[in-house]
Amino acid sequence: SISRLRRNHVGVEGEATASDGEVFLRQNDKSVKLTREQVSALEYDKGQRVFEDELVSDSSIEDVDHEVLDRYKELLGTEASDEQVLRSRRFMRDGKLTVAGALLFAQDPSVMMPQARVRVLRYDGVRMETGERLNITKERTFCGPLPKVIEGAYALISSMLRDFQFLGPDGKFQTVPEYPEFAWFEGWSML
Prior knowledge:
It is a single chain. Strands 1-2-3-4 form a four-stranded mixed beta sheet. About 30% of the residues lie in helices and about 20% in strands. Mean pLDDT is about 85; it is low at about 1-20. The chain is of the alpha+beta class.
């Protein structure tokens, strides 16, 4: 866990926990009181806590998309129960999904985490405009387990890209995509 120092420990860079549970971060010659969110962020930054391992409090096995989980079990080559597979891979603890488990297997993770969705926009030009100059030509939001979100976004994006034909040096027509698949797929999936 985070190295916690006594509040009266002078001259050491780090965080300190007072007897009342408040946490302070030493910055130069001052001690700055941290909020609960700042303490969590610090734990994440130091690698002492992993967001994906946090439990989603209002989740259960009832939230799981069994089609996606069955595909996963098939890849693993197992016939173990759904709960056993989720627990053994640390996607579920104490009957609740972890953040990783919810993102990968919940029917609609955005119910539990509103930010758990992918929005694909296409607009004319090189910059998105707003108001009267709005230039969006295609907009779709994908919600669901991550494998289905990726499949849906992939299909939409690939359908929006053009192919070009040209006469090759061998005298035959060749087709090349507007953007190489590896480039656009990696680009959007790394956002």
